[in-house]
Specification:
The complex is a heterodimer of chains A (185) and B (665).
Chain A (H helix, E strand, L loop, with lengths): L1 H29 L27 H19 L8 H22 L3 H35 L14 H18 L9
Chain B lengths: L1 E6 L5 H9 L3 E5 L6 E9 L2 E7 L11 H13 L3 E7 L3 H14 L3 E6 L1 H4 L3 E3 L1 H8 L3 E3 L8 H10 L11 H17 L4 H9 L3 H9 L3 H18 L3 H20 E3 L7 H9 L5 H32 L1 E2 L5 E2 L2 H9 L5 H38 L1 H15 L6 H8 L3 H6 L7 H10 L6 H14 L4 H23 L23 H35 L12 H13 L6 H10 L5 H9 L3 H7 L2 H13 L4 H11 L2 H29 L4
Parallel strand pairs in B: 1-4, 1-5, 5-6, 6-8
Antiparallel strand pairs in B: 2-3, 3-4, 7-9, 10-11
Helix pairs in contact in B: 3-11, 7-8, 7-10, 13-15, 14-15, 15-22, 20-21, 20-27, 22-25, 23-24, 24-25, 27-29, 28-29
The chains are: A mainly alpha (185), B alpha/beta (665).
Chain lengths: 185, 665
């Protein structure tokens, strides 16, 4: 059962990493120019297939990988992305950390879990920060509206909000605490 | 000569004792107890040396008989040298006792025993360990007699310049208070006694009580509670965690594990955040998130304070009066109009400016306390050590430079963590060249007017120019006026922990309080002076050409021409000397509207003004802090001249090259 959790979480992490990759690139370039078919970057969610040999449950692998990549494609082609160069670079870093963690996590090596934890924490921190900024923005908007009649706050959905909640789900395997080992052992 | 052998149990202490003394030994009991005492003699170059084997202990607390015997022997018999025998195969764990011995005596020789076995687990840099600790370190394999002669030679002829571990500043300050009191009592080894009193060590407390120094005991109790409050844990755990941090840091500095089991969360996080490739990008992202948090979260609080004090003009006409307007109208009933205007639009507006700035300062220190208390800042220092060394600084220097992005005052104060005076001065000299939060506010204000399309790009260019200049000057200074070697040192790596709310709040308040008090007085004073200069001589229109401020502007006109600086810009720079935020105030006083300000300068002139502002003299509060920290007028003058030279040079180059190329006209 534990092994299935592990394999599922690796696929889910690839899904998260591919979303971060797409949104990262999109945020970096949004202010400069449009890249057509950018959403195809979310196809990186199929990366776990390249680790075919390390999976024990291969039927689960194929089903989940295609399900996740479909969800990723759907999500990315239906969101609007703000232009935020440094914000985008942050997401690209998270993406790199998560992708880097996959192989070793699957092999139950501690370096995989290390990258997984740091990537996940960083993603949650970015998401939480954007949610706090949203709250501060709403507060600021209404403070500046004092004495005037203002339209309701113009809410726009940043991808980081969704990524935060999707990332929360990834905490489960971390809290589940598998026993990992050093690479050299 | 007397040599004492200390060490953890089962480190090969007895084997070394036997190897040193051969058959010249005597086995008995320590006085009054049944703990075995072994002593013997060895002759070195005709000198007869007494060697005493102390009981094996893991630490030097007063909990066990063995620990008491070991430390009392060192305290009372005052051995000429203590040899700490370390089981190198369990290096990190054994280093804890060494940290305690380093508090007790200066003359220690470290014997890295079982070195052959250890080499299978780690790559140990013995030379680096010697340099870092400042004492002899000798690898030994006692059972084969390897290294014994060198050990004896080091004990007799070795050089000792021990670099004692230091606790965090808030603990060190409290240790110093007790040290002073104990010195007055005539207690020897006062630092060790002070630490033990703070730790509530029963044996030492009794000893001081016997001397009738009740006030010392009370003071220690009070200081102990303060530390416990700050760190949210009992004193023993707090002090032990500092020593473990030192051991962990020392271990990371000198040993590279080849194959070790038992991975902790701290190990895992360190594996990534101190990673060669990912470490720095992670640090940059965390910094970006931190500054984003500070500025974005502070905005509603700043706007609320601004609204409360200054009120606002409504889009459809009309006005919401702020406290200042209300107070002005009320005072005008019984005071002359000029007096009411001075108090409200001069003094109170200055106070409002400080209060508007408060949320940023508090949040900045909140986030820095959070990063510090969680243990992350120590990793940053560890990570940046290699880069900083090229600039002639140790890794901790980066923390003070980073703090400079918030405010140069606490940043300069934080250089106290740098133990080397040369590095400290170098860090202080470079710090004012890092744009503080106040300068960044002015950049944001002006770029939003003059570079609306490329605001982020212009801000980034200023930051990058600043970092490049700091790196270049650091490189040049460390090879010329601040010449010297960067001393190797132990970077303490405390385990990660969730900081307590109380601890963060105390740290945040300790750092913000003094700054706010100073900034408050200076900004209020500067605002009042600007008001007076804009309102005087009597009868002129406020801020007009006939006012003093207008006359100064006319006079300074030709001076700034070759640097692209307008007379109004020079006046704003002059007032920026008091506090950089006042630059915005000055422009607001000098120009009736934003449009008028935008018409007064070309974008090229605005950029050369921003470059000047980036480097020219730090504000009064920063200069006062530099003097307070260095007690040197010459150094102060050096910092001011350095800033002006860079400012003049950069704005001159930017304006004239830009003019030649026909950019931004």
């Amino acid at each position: 059962m534990k092994r299935e959790y592990l394999e599922f979480s690796v696929i889910y992490t690839a899904f998260l990493a591919s979303l971060c990759l797409y949104y990262g690139v999109a945020e970096v370039f949004a202010s400069l120019f449009n890249i057509p078919y950018l959403f195809l970057l979310s196809l990186f969610a199929v990366y776990p297939l390249l680790l075919w040999r390390d999976f024990h449950n291969r039927i689960l692998l194929v089903v989940l990988v295609f399900l996740m990549s479909a969800v990723a494609l759907l999500l990315t082609s239906h969101t609007s992305v703000p232009g935020d160069v440094v914000g985008g670079l942050s997401l690209l870093l998270v993406s790199a950390l998560l992708f880097y963690s996959l192989r070793d996590t699957l092999r139950e090596l501690y370096s995989g879990l290390s990258f997984y934890i740091v990537g996940l924490f960083l993603l949650l921190a970015i998401g939480l920060l954007q949610i706090l900024i949203l709250l501060a923005d709403i507060m600021d908007y209404y403070i500046l509206c004092v004495g005037e009649s203002c339209a309701p706050y113009p809410f726009s959905m940043r991808p980081e909000y969704a990524l935060f909640f999707l990332g929360l789900l990834s905490l489960y395997p971390f809290l589940h605490r598998w026993e990992f080992r050093r690479k050299s052992e | 000569m007397l040599i004492a052998l200390a060490g953890n149990p089962n480190t090969g202490k007895s084997t070394i004792f036997n190897a040193l003394t051969g058959s010249h030994q005597h086995v008995g009991n320590w006085p009054g107890v049944t703990v075995e005492k072994k002593e013997g003699f060895v002759t070195y170059k005709g000198k007869r040396i007494r060697v005493v084997d102390l009981p094996g202990t893991y630490s030097l607390t007063a909990y066990s008989l063995e620990e008491l015997i070991a430390r009392n022997f060192i305290l009372e018999e005052k051995p000429d040298v203590v040899i700490d025998i370390i089981d190198s195969t369990n290096l990190e764990r054994n280093l804890y006792l060494l940290t305690e011995l380093m508090e007790l005596t200066d003359r220690i020789v470290v014997a890295l025993n079982m070195f052959d076995e250890a080499k299978k687990k780690y790559r140990i840099d013995v030379e680096k360990m010697r340099k870092i600790l400042g004492i002899p370190v000798v690898p030994t394999v006692a059972i084969r007699g390897i290294g014994i002669d060198e050990l004896l030679k080091s004990a007799v002829e070795g050089k000792f310049s021990l670099k004692r571990p230091r606790y965090p500043e808030d603990v060190e300050r409290r240790i110093e208070i007790l040290e002073r009191m104990l010195r007055e009592l005539g207690v020897e080894k006062e630092r060790w006694h002070a630490i033990k009193l703070l730790e509530n060590d029963g044996d030492v407390t009794k000893k001081i009580q016997k001397m009738g120094a009740r006030d010392v005991i009370h003071q220690a109790e009070h200081l102990r509670h303060e530390i416990e409050d700050i760190y949210g844990d009992d004193i023993e755990s707090v002090m032990a965690s500092f020593r473990y941090s030192f051991s962990h840091g020392l271990f990371h500095e000198v040993a590279e594990p080849l194959n070790v089991g038992g991975v902790t969360i701290t190990d895992m996080l360190d594996h990534v955040v101190a990673h060669k490739i990912f470490g720095i990008p992670i640090f940059l992202v965390i910094m970006y998130l931190s500054f984003n948090f500070v500025f974005e979260m502070a905005a509603p609080f700043q706007d609320a304070i601004d609204l409360i004090f200054n009120g606002k003009d409504l889009a459809g006409g009309g006005r919401v009066n702020g406290l200042i307007d209300i107070s002005y109208l009320w005072m005008a009933k019984f005071l002359p109009a000029w007096a009411s205007s001075f108090i409200n639009y001069g003094m109170l507006r200055g106070l409002a400016a400080v209060l508007t700035f408060t949320p940023i300062i508090m949040l900045l220190f909140l986030i820095l306390s959070l990063l510090e208390d969680s243990g992350y800042l120590a990793r940053v220092a560890f990570l940046m050590d290699r880069i900083m060394r090229k600039m002639g600084l140790e890794g901790r220097g980066v923390i003070s430079l980073m703090l400079g992005l918030g405010c140069n005052v606490p940043a300069i104060m934080s250089t106290r963590a740098l133990k080397n005076e040369r590095e400290r001065k170098l860090s202080i000299a470079l710090n004012p060249l890092i744009p503080c939060g106040a300068r960044i506010q002015v950049f944001a204000f002006l770029t939003s007017l003059f570079f609306r399309e490329n605001q982020a790009l212009v801000l980034w260019s200023l930051l990058i120019i600043s970092f490049i200049v700091v790196a270049l000057l650091g490189y040049i200074y460390s090879r010329t006026i601040f010449k010297g070697e960067v001393e190797p040192f132990v970077m303490e790596l405390p385990p990660y922990r969730l900081p307590t709310l109380r601890g963060i709040a105390i740290h945040m308040w300790e750092k913000s309080e003094g700054f706010l008090r100073k900034a408050g007085t200076i900004i209020i004073g500067a605002a009042a002076i600007i008001w007076l200069l804009a309102a005087l001589p009597w009868g002129v229109e406020y801020g007009s050409e006939a006012s003093y401020i207008g006359q100064i502007a006319r006079f300074l006109g030709p001076v700034g021409h070759i640097f692209g600086l307008t007379p109004e810009a020079i006046i704003a720079l002059f007032f920026g000397f008091f506090a950089k935020e006042v630059v915005i105030d000055s422009f607001t006083v000098l120009f009736s509207s934003k449009e008028a300000l935008m018409a007064s300068m070309t974008s090229l002139q605005a950029y050369s003004f921003l470059l000047f502002l980036l480097f020219y003299t730090p504000c009064v509060a920063t200069l006062a802090t530099i003097y307070q920290e260095t007690r040197s007028v010459r150094f102060l003058i050096f910092v001011v001249i350095e800033g002006f030279v860079l400012a003049l040079l950069s704005s001159f180059l930017a304006y004239n090259i830009g003019t030649l190329l026909g950019v931004g006209g």
